[in-house]
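Exercise 3.2. Students should predict the tertiary structure of the chain below and write it as structure tokens, then compare their answer with the key that follows.

Predict this chain's 3D structure.
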Amino acid sequence: MYAISVLSHREAIAKGFDDALLLDHQEFVADASVANVFMVKNGTLHTPKPIGFLNGITRKVTLSLASELGLDTREAYITLNDLLTADEVFLTGTAYEICPVKSVGGTSFPARDITDKLRQAYRQATLVHLN
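Answer key:
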């Protein structure tokens, strides 16, 4: 899986994108090449089930913070169409922390309410551990 991620990331960068979206063998969203994927639809936070990809630490922290904020969260199989019809999409990872996705293909995601709440909570949690 690591080799696929590296090659996909390089190809995405070469084509002018920031990252690549990876699908599993059943065409469900798995993750990005160097980050985990989240989406918000109708106020509910969704992320792919951690099957066949790295269940990252930042992903786990994000789910914990979402719970603390009282957000409804679901780990589920996500289709590309599900993702493209989401209200918000963001990536999580050590380098990304929590990073909003502006667009996938030609679909834009201008809403960032929940993403911004989680980013703020993540920064606060990080500051607590640094001090």
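Discussion points: Residues 2-130 form a domain with the D-amino Acid Aminotransferase; Chain A, domain 2 fold (CATH 3.20.10.10). The beta strands are 21-23, 29-32, 36-41, 44-48, 72-76, 88-93, 97-100, 103-104, 107-108.
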